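wait is this the right file?? whatever heres the structure
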């Protein structure tokens, strides 16, 4: 017997019920984005590799899915290149395009390409799938949706504050309890400067970003493997262990970074941002986390990460400020800030907490029983009337046994079943069965609108 077909690891099929639930998440997020004045855009699933490479750091570049050139893609590759064990060089010869790794870099490319059509500051949102050649595991997929919201062309910290309010609004609407963590890459740069290892900033941030997953000792070992000296690590340790409330943390950090102009600028930005939040109540908890680094190279200011306080799954939203991402595409000096909601992880959190029970059935809410040719014209007319009311409805395609048709309606979680047989036709009536309560009654066709709408 032939084996069943399968799909690639790290990807998923979605049943009708799952799609309805995912659309509930997307619709909730879209409504909040629009509430704050953001407009939708879309970009292609694939980008030129020159657009993607070098924007996510060495680790990120390894996770980009490359697309083989069409046709005879090996025709122009020198023979010696095929015999050499240099996959990176060979890949650049036979692959010119790749699947997008995130939505931020394509957005920066979009802004530069369409600069003459855009009014700045430009507030956009984008909800599309992205792909990463990562090892699949719980909460991590190779194909997943991101829900991005960014504003570009403004340096105001009011934008960061607005994004935090958007995060708070989205998760409040989804009835999820979250912790919003905030830090600033200028602070991390200041720490590297004070430790005398400014050339190791990327190595430091990549390592520190893992502290919650692997612990301080493992992070220190990783930094050592990157050539960071024991003396520098000794200067970094006090920063990793700063505690207290936001004011106390910033005070202690200000003393440590008093010789770093860039670090002090980051502290002042944090003070301003937290000052905005003091005057406006947020439902979600907000925390200054000085170990938060987010390992993407393009962040330059505020960095934000959101975690569920109810389910252990990693971050479900994150982002930050990027001062010159468009500069790599020939348009320098345009600052932006944005965050990305991980729809797939949000789905998993809602699923594990059984929070989808509040979603009403958005599929077929009414089915008409098919009694055969004699009653078909009458029932098709009923179907038209009901669909014109804006009610989702269908008629069973064959005149099968009533038991089979009712089982079908039950499996699809249909709210009402309408039956119009010989007796109903004579009196211009219809029998309506409530599939939830089990109640059944006859009503006239004229009463149908009032009954169903009620």
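ok assuming it is, sequence goes like this
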């Amino acid at each position: 017997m032939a084996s069943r077909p399968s799909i690639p690891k790290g990807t998923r099929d979605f049943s009708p019920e799952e799609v309805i639930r995912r659309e509930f998440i997307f619709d909730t997020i879209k409504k909040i984005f629009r509430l704050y004045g953001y407009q939708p855009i879309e970009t292609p699933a694939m980008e030129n590799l020159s657009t993607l490479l070098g924007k996510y750091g060495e680790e990120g570049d390894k996770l980009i899915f490359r697309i083989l050139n069409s046709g005879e893609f090996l025709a122009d590759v020198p023979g010696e290149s095929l015999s050499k064990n240099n996959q990176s060089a060979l890949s650049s010869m036979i692959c010119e395009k790749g699947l997008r790794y995130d939505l931020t870099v394509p957005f920066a490319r979009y802004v530069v390409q369409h600069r003459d059509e855009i009014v700045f500051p430009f507030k956009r949102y984008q909800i599309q799938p992205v792909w990463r050649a990562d090892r699949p595991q719980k909460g991590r997929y190779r194909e997943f949706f991101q829900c991005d919201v960014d504003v570009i062309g403004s340096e105001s910290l009011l934008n960061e504050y607005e994004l935090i309010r958007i995060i708070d609004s989205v998760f409040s609407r989804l009835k999820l309890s979250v912790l919003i963590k905030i830090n600033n890459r200028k602070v991390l740069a200041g720490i590297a400067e004070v430790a005398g290892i400014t050339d190791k900033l990327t190595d430091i941030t990549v390592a520190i970003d893992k502290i919650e997953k692997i612990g301080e000792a493992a992070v220190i070992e990783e930094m050592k493997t990157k050539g960071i000296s024991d003396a520098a690590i000794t200067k970094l340790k006090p920063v990793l262990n700063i505690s207290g409330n936001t004011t106390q943390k910033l005070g202690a950090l200000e003393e440590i970074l008093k010789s770093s102009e860039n670090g002090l600028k980051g502290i002042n930005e944090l003070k301003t941002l937290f000052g905005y939040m003091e005057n406006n109540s947020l439902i979600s908890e907000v925390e200054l986390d000085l170990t938060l680094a987010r390992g993407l190279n393009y962040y330059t200011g505020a960095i934000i990460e959101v975690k569920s306080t109810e389910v252990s799954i990693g971050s479900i939203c994150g982002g930050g400020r990027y001062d010159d991402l468009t500069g790599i595409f020939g348009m320098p000096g345009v600052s932006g800030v944005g965050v990305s909601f991980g729809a797939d992880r949000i789905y998993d959190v809602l699923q594990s907490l059984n929070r989808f029970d509040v979603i009403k059935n958005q599929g077929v809410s009414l089915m008409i029983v098919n009694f055969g040719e004699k009653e078909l014209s009458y029932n098709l007319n009923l179907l038209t009337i009901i669909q014109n009311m804006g009610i989702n409805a269908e008629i069973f395609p064959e005149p099968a046994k009533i038991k089979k048709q009712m089982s079908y309606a039950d499996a699809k979680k249909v709210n009402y079943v309408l039956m119009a047989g010989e007796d109903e036709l004579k009196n211009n009536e219809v029998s309506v069965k409530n599939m939830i309560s089990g109640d059944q009654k006859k009503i006239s066709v004229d009463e149908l609108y009032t009954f169903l709408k009620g």
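The longest strand covers residues 122-131. so i think its the right one actually
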